[in-house]
Write a structure and sequence with these properties.
Layout: E1 4-6, H1 11-16, H2 18-28, E2 32-35, H3 43-52, E3 56-61, H4 64-69, H5 71-80, E4 85-88, H6 96-115, E5 119-123, H7 138-145, E6 149-153, H8 154-161, H9 164-170, E7 175-180, E8 182-183, E9 189-190, H10 199-209, E10 213-215, H11 224-235
Parallel strand pairs: 1-2, 1-10, 2-3, 3-4, 4-5, 5-6, 6-7, 7-10
Antiparallel strand pairs: 8-9
Helix pairs in contact: 2-11
């Protein structure tokens, strides 16, 4: 099983020991990484370390505002590290006006990035499944009004709409990655196998659908690497 990890999971280690954390991630058995920031590292440094520790780059969680305000420099960096999947980790879409403005901006940037060989995606939390004051659901509008690819965070979909498996079935053609995450129904995160989300069923479905899986465990308790080890050891039991 090829298993990726969102490096926000080990942000405590990345901040203090960037190289050592990547080395440990590789030793644990993860085969790819999804960055959440580069901590001042140059593209050459990132490339060297990924090659040294035999890690593939699956994508990044990166700022939409960087694309709006500094497109050329931002894209040049992502091209230099070979990133093909630029994923917006979240955005303030909590009014119809804000959502309309986002839609107006996002589709032209999707097209521009595609010409640069990069796919633009969106990562959900639970709030996108809430109903706005006008009765609209943010996530539904992202589906129908944008050309974004979707990285479904199955835990936050579990918290927000209770049926992440059904969401995967419904959006199969739009999904480029699945975030495999666990936690309680009240939004309290846990390492894989220690919460209430249907992780085993999600893993089975993602494998059957051929969708790449990215582990995320957010609480760094006691450390991010400790949680990363629990997660991959759990996946190995499935």
């Amino acid at each position: 099983m090829d298993i990726g990890i969102q490096l926000y999971s080990v942000r405590d280690g990345m901040e203090t020991d960037f190289e050592g954390t990547l080395k440990k991630i590789s030793e644990l058995g993860y085969t790819s990484v999804e960055f959440a920031g580069f901590y001042g590292k140059t593209a050459d440094e990132v490339n060297r370390l990924l090659e040294q520790y035999n890690l593939k780059l699956s994508g990044t969680h990166s700022s939409f505002d960087d694309l709006l305000n500094n497109y050329e420099e931002t894209v040049a960096y992502h091209k230099a590290i070979g990133n093909k999947n630029y994923i917006i980790p979240g955005y303030d879409l909590w009014s119809q006006g804000k959502l309309d403005r986002f839609v107006e901006q996002i589709n032209p940037i999707c097209e521009r990035l595609a010409k640069d060989g990069i796919t633009l995606g969106f990562h959900n939390h639970n709030k996108e499944f809430e109903v706005l004051e006008n009765g609209e659901v943010v996530y539904e509008q992202l589906i129908y009004r944008t050309n974004l690819r979707l990285e479904i965070d199955t835990y936050w979909a579990f918290v927000g709409m209770k049926n992440p498996l059904g969401l995967l079935d419904r959006l199969a053609d739009r999904v480029n990655f699945v975030h495999v995450k666990d936690g309680m129904a009240d939004g309290s995160g846990k390492p894989l196998g220690m919460g209430e989300a249907p992780v085993a069923e999600i893993v089975k479905k993602a494998q059957a659908m051929g969708i790449p899986m990215v582990v995320e465990s957010e609480t760094c308790n006691p450390t991010g690497l400790a949680e990363a080890e629990i997660c991959i050891n759990y996946l190995k039991t499935l």
